Amino acid sequence: MNPKQILKQLAYRSAYAGLYIISLLPMTFLYALGSITYFLAYYIIGYRKEVVIQNISRAFPDKRYGEVHAIVKKFYACFTAYFAEIIKSISVSAEVLDKKIVFENQELIDQYIASGRDVIACLGHCGNWEMLNFMPFKMQYDIYAVYKPLRSTTMNKLMIRFRSRFGMKLLPDKAVVRQILAKSSGPAVYLFLADQCPPIKEEKFRFTFLHQDTYVFSGMEKLARTSRSAVIYLHITQLSKGHYKITCLPICSEASATREGEITQKYISLLTENIKEEPYGWLWTNKRWKGSPSS
Q1: What end-to-end distance do the CA atoms of the chain give, in Å?
Q2: Beta strands 189-193 and 143-147: pairing type?
Q3: Coil, strand or helix: which one is 212?
Q4: For position 89, what pLDDT does the model report?
Q5: Percentage above 70 pLDDT, the chain
Q6: Are 180 and 190 in contact (CB under 8 A)?
Q7: What is the pTM of this model?
Q8: Which long-range contacts (C-beta less than 8 Å, at least 24 apart) are formed by 14-17?
Q9: Strand pairing partners for 284?
């Protein structure tokens, strides 16, 4: 191992040890740190505040100034609390998380898997989506989370370690096609976060989303149709602070039987309902409509 590799390994181990120690702190203390972070991010630094206000104003044109700012403030408060919960999940037991996360209509996935079909589970950056890393503890089949590797080797290794703690398999986005089409193992579930701005914009995958013309990733639908997978939406809502409900909603049982764009349109509709139910829970800091027709 050369000196550069040694330094990277040292950085990774040090970062992991530090975060693990912090995760052992009581949840009340971690939430308190989250509250301090909220105050700094919203009132002092104003982290992407203009982007958040603009996104929410455009998404909800019927809301008044005071209503928009109430959503903005609650978004920052929830967003920083999510980080506290993610840090705690580094060391918290599965039994504790099992009491905080409710899976509803899981039988839908069981049914598709039992029929021999892969399941593509699409979702948005709603609520604390990182809690989905707990899914493999509740289900008796392989679950893959499709992700884009981070540039930092240390951060990438940390992300993989944290997210795979309960059995989640991390699958780089460039490897997902080969994995799902290879059929080298039994049917599995593949998680897709498909609500970010795609690098390649296709007119056939341009939809109205939150009152704006929006380009959407086509890869999820195309892969589902090619692999003849079933497709579901994971609807995430917050029951109370630190407690979440994840509901499995059907999109289609056989993707190859759908029209082009039909799956994506249903996904957009379900995502919109999810956001409207808890408008403060979506990741508004993203420049989602950058380069879109409505921007």
Answers
A1: 49
A2: parallel
A3: strand
A4: 96
A5: 98
A6: yes
A7: 0.94
A8: 15/154, 15/158, 16/158, 16/161
A9: none
